C-alpha cells in the first residue's frame, strides 16, 4: 500500500534519462516538459534544431534538465548519434518517446508512391530506427520504457488521411511485436493513440493560404469535434503528455504492448 511519499517516488523520474523526438512542437514539446518536471534529464530532438533548443531552454528556465538536439529521425546515422549522445552524457537511457511525425492527405485511391515512401520513412522507419538504437541499450542495461505515438486514425478510420493511418497502424503493430520480444529484459513498449489536439500539425485545417491561422475557421473545425466527443472537448498537448508520464514512470511497470487512447471518448479500443 502506498503512502504519499512512496506514491510520489513511483511517479518520479529523478535520475533517469529520456529522449523525446518531435520535441520542438505540440505533443512532443509538452511531453518533454512533463518528463523534465518529473525529474528526468530530457534530450529534446527535432528536425528543426532551433525549436528543439527552444524547448530545452524553456525547460531549463523552469528548473529542469534538458538538452536540445537537431535530428532527422528518417536518417539512421543521425538517430544513432542522438541516442549515443544521451547515453554518453548520462551513462543511461530509461525512456524513449517516439513523437516526431508528419501527416499527409490522400484517399487510398490517390496515394502516390512518393507520399507513401516519405510517410513510411518518418512515421514508421524513423520510430523503428530510434527504437532499435535505444532498445539495444535498454536490453543490455536492465530495461526501460519506449512510448510510440500513433493516432485515433487507427481506431476510427477517417477519410483522406490514408497513408498517415497506415503508417500509424504499422507503428501499433511494431509496438506489440517488440513488446513480446523485449519484455523479458525489462523493456516495456506501449503506444498512445491521441484524439484531436490542436497543434502545428492540425492547424492545416484552419490555416489561410498565406500561412496565418484563421480564428473563425478554427472555431468552425473545433466546435463540432468538441460537441461530438463524449467529454465535450478536444485534447491539449498536456492531456497526452500526462499519458506519456504514466507510461514512462513506474506507475505502469506492469503495462506493456498496450494502446492507451486519450481521445475524449471518441473511439474505443478494439
Ligand atoms: N495533434 C493531433 O491531433 C494528433 C493526433 C494523433 C496523433 N498525433 C501524433 O502526435 C505526434 C506529434 O504531433 P503534433 O500534433 O504535436 O505535431 P507537430 O507538428 O506540432 O509536431 C511534430 C514535430 O515533429 C517534428 N518532425 C517532423 N518530422 C521529423 C523528422 N523527420 N525528424 C525529427 N523531427 C521531425 C516536427 O518538426 C515537429 O516539431 C505525431 O506523431 C502525430 O502524428 C497528433
Describe the structure in brief.
The chain contains 8 helices and 7 strands, in the order αβαβαβαβαβαβααβ.
CATH class category of the largest domain: Alpha Beta
Could you name the ranges where pLDDT drops below 50 across 5 or more consecutive residues?
A: none
Average residue-wise pLDDT: 97
Helix content class: 40-55%
Distance between the termini: 32 Å
Predict the CATH topology of the largest domain.
Answer: Rossmann fold
User: H/E order of the elements?
Assistant: HEHEHEHEHEHEHHE
Overall SS class:
alpha/beta
The radius of gyration computed from the alpha-carbon positions, rounded to a whole number of angstroms, is 18 Å
How is this structure best described in words?
- This protein is of the alpha/beta class.
- The protein has 2 domains: about 5-195 and about 235-260, NAD(P)-binding Rossmann-like Domain (Rossmann fold, 3-Layer(aba) Sandwich); about 200-235, no CATH class.
- Helices cover about 45% and strands about 15% of the residues.
- It has helices at about 5-10, 25-35, 50-60, 75-90, 115-140, 160-180, 215-230, 235-250; strands spanning about 15-20, 40-45, 65-70, 95-100, 145-150, 185-190, 260.
- It has a 7-stranded parallel β-sheet with strand order 3-2-1-4-5-6-7, sandwiched between helices.
- α5 links the parallel β4 and β5 (about 145-150).
- The structure holds nicotinamide-adenine-dinucleotide (NAD).
Describe this protein with a few key phrases.
270 residues, alpha/beta, Rossmann fold, 2 domains, 7-stranded parallel beta sheet, binds nicotinamide-adenine-dinucleotide
